Backbone:
């Protein structure tokens, strides 16, 4: 027993670890530049910055502060053609561009030199000139070049800009020199382009980065519950999550309770009256409830009870005024009115499912030999049902509860969106939409953690409740 | 007529009950609209005659702009406004994307509308798009994504599930040679991944490597010293538990946000990713049970090849329960698709389908037709699928060795 | 039976509670609360740092700006100042040739602790905005032209602000800013150590000790405490509470200094005793909330709903409907760097293909006005004799043909040789996943397809949208421009070498006129330059100008109040309870 539990825990940890790597990897695959998302928080000046050099400095500073300077993972694999330093380029687009230049010119070290020349040119031309002056053009040229994928375009632009600058007397000589040396270097690169590359230069090499990497920092922050700030509103991510969690727990907990309480009763009732006309019609209603999409049910309920098109009894959404000074009565009443429709929506599908399971389980148990034996002993039907059949028939409910714990915590996105309830589902949705990873990552990991734990617990409880069940050790 | 009848009778569980029959008929209608949709609802006429010239715009794929070029006197040609000498329109003369701002946003089915021929029978949405055309488009999208996603899930889940159960953790043994070869090929695969060639070439190279692997595996079959057991079951179950330990909608959201392309295929893929473990688990359980039965043991004693046993003696019998989960899976895939469309994720923005139509009702509750029709369509499709699935569940299963499967 | 009982009990008690709660809400004494619906929650209430217009709206009730645009006259009216300063020319001293503004703070103006609002607080605000670690975003940009700020040791209520060069928005920049109480936002008095001339100087180099101090101040100034816990100022309202995701509540101060001011400007008045801002994202929910009396004011209602509600007899008695014009211009930004769209004829063809009437009648339900360019039709210098474009498919197709696009390969889309490559007439339109932009894009796609231009809709999430637009990764994109209340400065968006020139328009004539406008001496000269500019833009069609919307505001008739074309269109502090 203990051994199998330990093994399960071990597997769960492995699975969670793999998951965290997958999520991390996916988060890095999101289109768009992650650093820019942080820049808009850490340095709102950025939007108003005009000089590309200032923008670059601000970008670099934020990236450094936020730990984007580190490599992504413990190790990286890339063709040996690309020197180490390419991986250290902060800007993702720029990194891709430099790699492309290397593949075009097939001279890694010299292309890097060319890249540094671009950076240096940018530094000297952007720092000295006034915005809008003619010299600013060369500054803009450098900034654009760094964002250009195709080196040929850089070359044509460089030639064009140098033509314009040469006629302008306001541009200092050093800027002109920088540009002409850049053009010379590009011509040189083109001239010396080797026709082919040794096949070995494409061989992947593995580089070890140690614990100084983004994933490691991220996981550490998560495990130690370090304060994370949301990108949307600068609030503590944990606080946001726990707030959302409390709403989701309330909403889903209530609906689960309702579904269980009503579902078990209905299930037992229909088990007892199996085959009768009234049972069949109830069956049909439950079937329809099961099949009705929750978002349609929600829309219908709002249409009939909240929109004012038919009658207006309930508020159409939100959680009501949640201030403490309103008195216990009005607070509870308010909550009741606001949560009534969403709870009904969530409970409807679950109710049908629970009652069906319950009915089947009841019928199954009622047919068991022990029930027949009791009947043969003359025990009344009521006693058999109440003290023997129903307790045994309740076992599958454990699985249902266990299976619904993840949903209890992750919330129902669609119901929360429709009824405007700030729960976990909506938080997840909005933070993914805004690429708010400091919130999304812990949220996802928490959902995974709870799911895994609830599976283990369900298993344990089931075994404890019904010792006949043995783990299949495969 | 009789032929029709016989086709219907061949549908699974047709004779089970009236409910199943109605379900099949409903699904047939949906399928019909899914296949013939573009010919039922299309803004392009079947046939027009202009300046004594005949055109078949729907079949020739002629656009309004092209016709305007050809007939400058009639320019601009508008399908529904130009006076053609004669024209035959599709039954619903609107495409799901045609915006009819003249008829107006939120035109109700019973409202007065400008013309009878171009009436919006089920009303319009806020942009004046025809709800009927949107519903017909919805049939196509829902069935395509529902069936497609589940087929994909089936293709992944069934082999993996059977493999996991049949070979278990200890049965699949490899010789050192195999492992070595496989290792070399994996490195070769990595290598192709890093060479800057087009994706097509990469895929080709990858396919080549896989073929090599298979060929080598067959060639070296005679090599007997099999020592290393590959824990297939554990590997596959691990994969399944990774997908399982995540709320399904979160996975779909992640995938849809990460992949920059939009389109039905991405949605299909995302749904398949969360559904295959279900299939695999069902299949695993079935094969597991069957593996222990005497007739399989007999086959093994006869020294039949493992693949042969799987292919001819296990999968065909284990398949039926999997089909039940397939039917339920299709319904949940359709539900997932319409939920996503309802939230406005996944499918392209201008796509009009059931979920999208229903979502538009959210801000316009007076347009009851936007609440009613698409909701009914989703609801009845789900009911039909559940009914068929239930009928399948009720049917007594195949009996082998006196045991029910 | 037991379960039934429980369910029954819960139902009954729930309904009783809710009735009780309804009773609790109706108060009979003469204090009253105004409930305002906001579609989004602001991220903070820090006027200098918030990026949400609602954040500024709410925060400005607490932290009054020195001067604000008057809802009626649309001119700056003094709030913390005694009057709007006039520009004086400087004839001597280091700023000779420049201008100076003298600001005098009202003698009545005091903070919550009774201390007067003084020049020190003004300086503190400016210094905070210039702190290199504070991200004063727009403020710093506006204030960058300030050359010197002088205070008078003998008069703590007096400040002089010097400008060396002429700057079109000088007055707005120095007066239309919310003044922070230094004793609240800088309890450690860190910024007192820093002279203002050093702070505003762009070349200032700080010693490491100073640097740490600046950083320390910045991190406290930008902390969550000041974002949503401590919000204090000289305004009529005090911040009371913030329920995340639900509401923000302000309460009127008991003895507010503004009550003692003789003939106070409109915005210094404050009638409601309490203002509740409720966040209701969903339009349908908001509508229901209005009908049930949960909120008293609704703005930015979807046009179609607004018209429907306007015709609803049940609502006519209880609510007032208002449609002030708002300072917003909707247009389709076009990227001139795209080889297809750099052609003026194609831009015009696109502009002529659009069904403007359909857009006006359907998306706006008639609640808007067409515009010919980036100047709002409400402006005095709007060029009235230029007619907005109308849909003309024939003209559009002719323009495409003229531009050399023809379907040579018979695939249904016109094509043309562009720098040696055969290109099809296909452009992308980038939209964020918001309903309005998507509808617009769908209409444009449909319209353009009728003249042979294929438009692909690329929908990305909002944050990606902003990034892509900034990185110029777009062909076309629906955008909205919010001009300033006072005057238009078209330099950023239209000047060839301006970094904020998103469309990438390069036109020497336009550049020249923009420079002329900036340096115009008289109003007449400036207006004639504006006319010239609008004509040029009309010819060049750098973007497709669609419309200016009217705001859709519904206010409960319980209150007497005014609406205005200034954002947000209504003024919650001016809600007077009708007798």
Residues:
């Amino acid at each position: 027993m203990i051994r199998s539990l330990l093994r399960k825990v071990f597997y769960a940890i492995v699975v969670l670890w793999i998951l965290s790597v997958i999520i991390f990897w996916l988060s890095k695959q999101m289109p768009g530049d992650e650093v820019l998302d942080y820049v808009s928080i850490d340095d709102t000046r950025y939007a108003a910055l005009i000089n590309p050099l200032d923008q670059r400095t601000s970008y670099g500073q934020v990236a450094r502060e936020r730990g984007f300077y580190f490599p992504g993972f413990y190790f990286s694999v890339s063709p040996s053609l690309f020197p180490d330093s390419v991986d250290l380029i902060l800007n993702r687009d720029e990194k891709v561009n430099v790699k492309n230049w290397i593949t075009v010119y097939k001279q890694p070290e010299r292309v890097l030199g060319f890249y540094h020349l671009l950076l240096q040119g940018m530094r000297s031309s952007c720092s000295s000139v006034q915005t809008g002056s003619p010299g600013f053009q060369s500054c803009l040229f450098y900034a654009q070049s760094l964002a250009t994928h195709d080196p040929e375009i850089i070359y044509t632009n460089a030639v064009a800009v140098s033509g314009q600058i040469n006629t302008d007397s306001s541009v200092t000589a050093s800027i002109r020199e920088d540009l002409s040396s850049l053009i010379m270097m590009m011509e040189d690169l083109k001239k010396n382009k080797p026709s082919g590359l040794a096949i070995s230069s494409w061989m992947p090499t593995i580089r070890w980065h140690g614990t100084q990497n983004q994933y490691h920092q991220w996981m550490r922050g998560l495990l130690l519950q370090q304060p994370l700030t949301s990108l949307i509103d600068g609030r503590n991510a944990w606080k946001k999550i726990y707030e959302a969690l409390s709403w989701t727990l309330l909403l889903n907990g209530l609906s689960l309770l309702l579904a269980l309480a009503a579902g078990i009763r209905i299930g037992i009732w229909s088990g007892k009256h199996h085959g009768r006309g009234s049972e069949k019609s109830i069956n049909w209603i439950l079937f329809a409830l099961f099949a009705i999409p929750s978002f349609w049910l929600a829309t219908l309920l709002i249409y009939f009870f909240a929109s004012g098109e038919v009658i207006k009894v309930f508020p159409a959404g939100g959680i009501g005024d949640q201030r403490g000074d309103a008195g216990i009565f009005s607070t509870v009443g308010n909550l009741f009115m606001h949560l009534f429709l969403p709870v009904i929506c969530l409970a409807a599908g679950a109710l049908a499912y629970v009652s069906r399971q319950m009915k089947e389980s009841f019928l199954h148990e009622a047919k068991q030999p022990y029930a027949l034996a009791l009947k043969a002993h003359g025990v009344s039907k009521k006693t058999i049902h109440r003290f023997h059949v129903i307790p045994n028939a309740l076992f599958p409910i454990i699985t249902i509860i266990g299976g619904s714990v993840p949903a209890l915590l992750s919330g129902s996105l669609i119901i929360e969106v429709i009824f405007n309830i700030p729960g976990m589902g909506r938080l997840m949705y909005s933070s993914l939409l805004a690429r708010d990873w400091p919130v999304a990552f812990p949220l996802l990991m928490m959902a995974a953690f709870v799911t895994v734990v609830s599976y283990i617990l369900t298993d344990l409880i089931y075994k404890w409740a019904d010792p006949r069940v043995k783990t299949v050790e495969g | 007529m009789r032929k029709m009848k016989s086709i219907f009778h061949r549908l699974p569980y047709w004779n089970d009950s009236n409910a199943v029959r109605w379900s099949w008929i409903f699904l047939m209608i949906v399928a019909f609209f899914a296949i013939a949709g573009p010919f039922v609802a299309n803004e392009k006429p079947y046939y027009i005659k202009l300046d004594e010239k005949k055109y078949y715009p729907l079949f020739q794929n002629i656009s309004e702009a092209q016709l305007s070029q050809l007939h400058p006197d009639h320019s601009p040609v508008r399908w529904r406004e130009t006076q053609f000498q004669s024209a035959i329109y599709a039954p619903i003369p609107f495409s799901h994307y045609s915006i009819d701002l003249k008829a107006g946003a939120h035109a109700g089915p019973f409202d007065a509308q400008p013309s009878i021929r171009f009436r919006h029978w089920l009303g319009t949405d806020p942009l004046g798009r025809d709800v009927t055309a949107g519903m017909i488009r919805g049939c196509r999208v829902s069935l395509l994504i529902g069936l497609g996603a589940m087929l994909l899930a089936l293709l992944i889940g069934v082999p993996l599930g059977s493999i996991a159960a049949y070979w278990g953790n200890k049965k699949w043994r490899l010789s050192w040679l195999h492992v070595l070869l496989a290792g070399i090929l994996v490195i070769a695969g990595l290598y192709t991944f890093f060479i800057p060639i087009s994706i097509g070439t990469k895929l080709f190279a990858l396919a080549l490597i896989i073929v090599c692997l298979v060929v080598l595996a067959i060639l070296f079959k005679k090599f007997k010293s099999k020592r290393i057991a590959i824990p297939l079951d554990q590997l596959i179950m691990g994969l399944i538990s990774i997908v399982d330990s995540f709320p399904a909608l979160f996975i779909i959201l992640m995938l849809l946000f990460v992949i920059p392309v939009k389109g039905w295929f991405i949605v299909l893929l995302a749904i398949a990713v969360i559904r295959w473990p279900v299939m695999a688990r069902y299949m695993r359980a079935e094969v597991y049970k069957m593996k222990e039965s005497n007739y399989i043991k007999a086959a093994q004693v006869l020294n039949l090849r493992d693949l042969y046993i799987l292919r001819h003696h296990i999968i065909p019998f284990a398949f039926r329960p999997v089909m039940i989960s397939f039917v339920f899976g299709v319904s949940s895939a359709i539900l997932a698709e319409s939920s996503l469309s309802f939230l406005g994720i996944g499918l392209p923005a201008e796509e009009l389908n059931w979920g999208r139509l229903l979502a538009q009702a959210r801000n316009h509750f007076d347009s009851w037709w936007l609440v009613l029709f698409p909701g009914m369509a989703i609801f009845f499709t789900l009911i039909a699928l559940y009914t068929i699935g239930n009928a399948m569940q009720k049917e007594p299963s195949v009996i082998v060795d006196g045991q029910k499967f | 039976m037991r379960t039934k009982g429980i369910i029954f009990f819960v139902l009954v008690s729930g309904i009783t509670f809710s009735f009780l709660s309804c009773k609790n809400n109706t108060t009979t004494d003469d204090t009253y609360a105004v409930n305002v619906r906001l579609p989004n929650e602001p991220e903070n209430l820090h006027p200098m740092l918030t990026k949400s217009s609602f954040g500024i709206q709410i925060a400005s009730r607490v932290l009054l700006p020195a001067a604000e645009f008057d809802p009626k006259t649309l001119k700056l009216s003094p709030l913390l100042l005694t009057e709007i300063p006039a520009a004086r020319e400087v004839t001597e001293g280091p700023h000779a040739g420049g201008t100076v503004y003298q600001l005098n703070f009202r003698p009545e103006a005091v903070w919550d602790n009774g201390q007067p609002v003084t020049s020190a607080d003004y300086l503190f605000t400016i210094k905070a905005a210039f702190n290199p670690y504070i991200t004063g975003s727009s403020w710093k940009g506006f204030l960058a032209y300030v050359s010197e700020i002088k205070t008078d040791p003998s008069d703590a209520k007096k400040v002089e602000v010097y400008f060396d060069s002429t700057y079109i928005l000088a007055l707005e920049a120095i007066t239309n800013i919310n003044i922070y109480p230094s004793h609240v936002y800088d309890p450690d008095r860190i910024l007192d150590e820093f002279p203002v001339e050093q702070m505003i100087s762009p070349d200032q180099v700080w010693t490491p000790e100073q640097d740490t101090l600046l950083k320390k101040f910045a991190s406290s100034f930008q902390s969550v405490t000041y974002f949503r816990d401590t919000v204090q100022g000289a305004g009529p309202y005090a911040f009371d509470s913030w329920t995340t995701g639900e509401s923000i509540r302000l309460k009127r101060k008991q003895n507010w200094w503004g009550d003692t001011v003789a003939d106070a400007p409109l915005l210094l008045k404050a009638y409601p005793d309490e203002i509740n801002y409720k966040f209701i994202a969903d339009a349908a929910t908001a509508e229901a909330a209005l009908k049930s009396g949960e909120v008293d004011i609704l703005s930015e209602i979807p046009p179609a709903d607004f018209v429907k509600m306007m015709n609803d007899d049940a609502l006519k008695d209880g609510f007032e409907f208002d449609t002030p014009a708002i300072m917003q211009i909707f247009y389709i930004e076009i990227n001139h760097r795209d080889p297809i769209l750099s052609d003026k004829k194609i831009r015009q063809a696109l502009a002529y293909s659009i069904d403007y009437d359909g857009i006006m009648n359907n998306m706006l339900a008639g609640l808007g006005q067409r515009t010919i360019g980036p100047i709002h039709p409400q402006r005095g210098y709007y060029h009235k004799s230029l007619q907005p474009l109308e849909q003309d498919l024939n003209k559009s197709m002719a323009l495409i043909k003229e531009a050399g696009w023809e379907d040579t390969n018979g695939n249904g889309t016109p094509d043309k040789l562009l720098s040696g490559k055969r290109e099809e007439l296909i452009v992308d339109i980038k939209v964020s996943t918001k309903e309005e932009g998507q509808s617009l894009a769908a209409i444009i796609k449909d319209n353009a397809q009728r003249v042979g231009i294929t438009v692909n809709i690329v929908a990305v999430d909002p944050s990606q949208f902003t990034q892509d637009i900034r990185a110029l990764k777009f062909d076309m994109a629906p955008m909205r421009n919010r001009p300033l209340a006072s005057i238009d400065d078209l330099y950023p968006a239209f000047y060839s070498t301006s970094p904020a020139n998103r469309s990438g328009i390069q036109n020497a004539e336009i550049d020249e006129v923009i420079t002329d406008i900036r340096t115009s001496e008289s109003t007449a000269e400036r207006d004639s330059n504006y006319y010239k500019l609008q004509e040029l833009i009309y010819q060049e069609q750098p973007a497709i100008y669609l419309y200016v919307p009217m705001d859709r505001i519904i206010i409960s008739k319980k209150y007497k109040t005014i609406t205005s074309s200034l954002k947000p269109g209504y003024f919650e502090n001016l809600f007077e309870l009708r007798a």
